[in-house]
Amino acid sequence: xxxxxxxxLAACGPRRTxxxxxxxxxxxxxxxxxSADAGxxxxxxxxxxDLPTLATRxxxxxxxxxxxxxxxxxxxxxAAGARAVLADYLDVRTAQATVADRGGGRELDAALAAHADRxxxxxxxxxxxxxxxxxxxxxxxxxxxxxxx
Length: 149
Fold this sequence. Notes:
The protein is mostly helical. The protein has helices at about 1-10, 50-70, 75-90, 90-100, 105-110, 115-130, 135-145; strands spanning about 15-20, 30-35. Helix 2 packs antiparallel against helix 3 (about 75-90).
């Protein structure tokens, strides 16, 4: 799937067009490069290109997952809660994968350091459910997508 996406981006990625500037005046002969996909200058950046925001949203995902796994219920209920959180944060997981694919894991880790306390607390809330449900195949399948969009 990722290979298909990379091929599609390579084939249909940002197109650049070159338009000559007006020939009159001091700027005669200057070439202006315009990106057809650039959008307005104040357009929001893609989540994968905004590591501070991605780090915040990643911490939010882990907090929400920690809350879901800290809830009362058997492994099936906890698995359903985990699936719901992961579905809600699909954009974050996809952006994380994009960053990892382009070799930006260290930079994202550095941005996540600002959220270490929240992440540690979320992991502590998840631990009892993970230990209690470690032998449940449905639970394991539900939490596996944390690293895979």
